[in-house]
Amino acid sequence: MVSASQPSSWQGEAFNEVPESENLIHGDEIAKRHGFTGGLVPGVTVSAYLMHPAVEAWGMDWLTRGQAKAVVKQPLYDAERFDVEVKPDPDPDPNSRADRYEATLYNGSGKLCAQGTASLPAVAPEPPAFRGDPKRTRGMERPTASREVFERLREQGLMAVRSRWSHDSELTSYTRDPSHMAGPCRPANGYAASPAYVLGMTNWALAANVFMPAWLHLQTEHQNFAPIPLGSELITELAVADLFERKGHEFVDVELSTFMTDETPVASCRLRAIYRLRGS
Hints:
The chain is of the alpha+beta class. The chain has one domain (about 10-125, about 130-275): Roll (Thiol Ester Dehydrase, Chain A), CATH 3.10.129. Helix content is about 20%, strand content about 30%. Strands 1-3-4-5-2-7-10-9-8-6 form a 10-stranded antiparallel sheet. Helix 2 crosses helix 4 (about 195-210). About 40% of the residues are buried.
């Protein structure tokens, strides 16, 4: 194994930092219209709860080369209590040279809301190459998401999106009190961008290319390549990987890579989202 530190189970209170988001599924009115109890805690925040034990145990090492998969199965609501149960890999590969655990998140009623894995390989895989895609500029119009629009963008390509990790960013904290975040993500410890922000960039990049009034972040598989210090300027490049329909919902899979402005890779991710909910 790579690390002597062992990730452990933890408990917390869910935090919806973006109830006024452009994605109206995070507000009460539209969420209730789609059958939810209220505005949904962002999927990237729920995913961060699964990765919190990795950052707490492995710190900057995990932010430098850690891997994770997170699947959101049921909604989590603001101020709802939750438990994340961590189990070591039940069938470790002796040749993987990696620490790994499975995590399951239950809400206060014991309902399974999310599950995933996180690992710390000895060496990160080959990072993505910076393509230099054209970048979106402020004020550019976006088409409304549809199968036809995404099919066209799969052929033509999507535009890269710039962002900045700062105190004024969305998703600066996945806990109501930032000091309760894991290790290096706490303000007192340098405020490296948390998994919620890293995954949040995938959402912003997609939403910067197409307008989606209410949509759901469902699943990510991502790889870290470098921590993101406060004040970092970033560029995310992305491409449509797959499109499909299931039970009346329209899904999109997107592959994304994020870089510093000097083209240093910081993370890559495959995102799955419902861009059009059944009945919309």
